[in-house]
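anyone seen this seq b4? input:
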Amino acid sequence: MKQITIYIAFLGMLTACKKDEISTASSASAAVYFIYDVMRPVNIDSISYTFVEKSSTVVTDTLWLPVRVSGDVADKDRPVNLVADNAGTTAEKDKHYKLLNNVIPKGSFTARLGVVLLRDASLQNNSVALNLRLQPSEDFPVLMKDTLMDDGRYYGRNKVKIIFTDRLLKPDNWESYLITFFGAYSNVKFRFITGVLGVSSFSTTGPKPVNYPRMQFYQNTVRNALLEYTTANGPLIDENNNVVVIP
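predicted toks r here
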């Protein structure tokens, strides 16, 4: 299973926290809470994810959500009660996601909670939302209060929203540029291209423009991959019942 880390990253010790001071001293009640990246300007308690730029062989991916505990460390692993909140959740358990058996390791103040996203075919046409919530447990009976950030908004310490999909959108520059290298557009063709290259955008401007030689390399790579596919499986047929070809 391929794994990635999504850093909601560290918030607890920054001065942006104006509502509650968090202590790791033994006098504090035991709690576990998500830690955020205050450098993100909006929606720091939510994550967007897409399978689009993953290889077609990748059918699962794991998001790792950093958490921290208040109170003292323990001499045992402590289970974390992370659950899906039915309110607002459209993702289906065992179809779109699975929750791991997450724990705070013995002697640790921090951990990463794993959520396995499943690349179900339905994600090619839709986005789904997964609202996760930390619940009280025997080891962590207290829930942290929300935090007031510098932007004037409160952000939940006990919840995070994941929106994920596997949809592709036709690039704006396909007809003006990409058609030269890949030919007429179809959803099936574009999905094949992104599966081969691990790339879904081909901007010619900005900090990392894709120049002409790079596009020629991409074209040859996809052409060779399509030849291998055709040899093994027969022609690749798109949603318009046309054979996919690369010029």
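The first helix runs from residue 174 to 182. DSSP finds three helices and twelve strands in the chain. kinda curious what u guys think
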